[in-house]
Amino acid sequence: MSRMSQSEFEPALDPRDELVTHLGVLRAFALSLCRNASTADDLVQETVMKAWKSIGSFEQGTNMRAWLFTILRNTYYTVHRKSSREVADTDGHFAATLSVKPEHDGKMAMNDFLEAFDQLPDEQREALTLVGASGFAYHEAAEMCGVATGTMKSRVNRARLRLVELLALDEDDSLELTDKGTMAVLTAHLPVNRS
Amino acid sequence: MNRDTSEARKENLIKENLRRAYDDKATEQLPDDLMALLAQLRGQDEQNEPK
């Protein structure tokens, strides 16, 4: 039989198989919310169980990552937020749990960044993770968080401004970013508040 | 103009650090507990599938 177009003649990817491909980013998102590795892994497990159970309600062709992130954040805010606050520092904060890969002298700068990121309020950390790291559009992130797009933009903007302040970036930090390696070397010399 | 460039560079710096931290975590090996859970869920599905 000749090969026909995939959309018409081949079965779509089983959503359960697709779900597995999002687990890495789901963990990263969970950790940015919880700042506790153990709680984050529990949160991911709960999310997977819920998603698996309701996989039939997932609409094929829509954004599964957004669907999973929404389940995860709803679970976090209804179940884990309180306990996460209570145990946030028992096994080290976000900066420590991220187990930054040493990239020569870039390690110190990354840890400084993560410590500053850790100090942001929950909603700003979440906004920055969704838009700045996960690559969601403002309107997608807003929908996931149940807020207006303008509110999401405002949260991202406030988060960035706060990080600039916390990292004490000033006019001298006119770094030209090219690639990861260059970045790591350049950021090793960033002035950081250590008061 | 210079101010705009400076702001853009600060923003890029933050964005790059954020992505690097996120990607490092997202590409880590998944924990054994999670893999075991997936195997369990798949096993249950197979058992429940009509023969």
Structural class of chain A: mainly alpha
Oligomer: heterodimer
Q: Unreliable runs of chain A, pLDDT <50, ≥5 residues? A: 1-6, 87-93, 99-106, 174-195
Proportion of residues in β-strands of chain B: under 5%
Report the strand count of chain B. Answer: 0
Order of helical and strand elements of chain A: HHHHHHHHHHH
List keywords for this structure.
heterodimer, A: 195 residues, mainly alpha, 0% strand, globular, disordered N terminus, disordered C terminus, B: 51 residues, 2 helices
Topology:
The complex is a heterodimer of chains A (195) and B (51).
Chain A: H1 6-9, H2 15-21, H3 23-34, H4 37-53, H5 64-87, H6 94-97, H7 106-118, H8 122-133, H9 138-145, H10 149-166, H11 180-187
Helix pairs in contact in A: 3-4, 3-5, 4-5, 5-9, 7-11, 8-10, 9-10
Chain B: H1 2-26, H2 32-48
Task: Tell me what the structure shows.
The complex is a heterodimer of chains A (195) and B (51). Chain A has 11 helices and no strands. By secondary structure, chain A is an all-alpha fold. Chain A is globular and about 55 Å long. The model of chain A is unreliable at 1-6, 87-93, 99-106 and 174-195 (pLDDT under 50). Chain B is mostly helical. Chain B contains 2 helices and no strands. The longest helix of chain B has 25 residues, at 2-26. The mean pLDDT of chain B is 87. Chain A binds chain B through residues 16, 20, 23-25, 27-28, 31-32, 41, 44-45, 48-49, 52, 98-101, 109-110, 113-114, 117, 128-129, 132-134, 160, 163-164, 167, 169, 171, 173-177, 180, 183, 187, and chain B through 5-6, 9-28, 30-31, 33-34, 37-38, 41-42, 45.
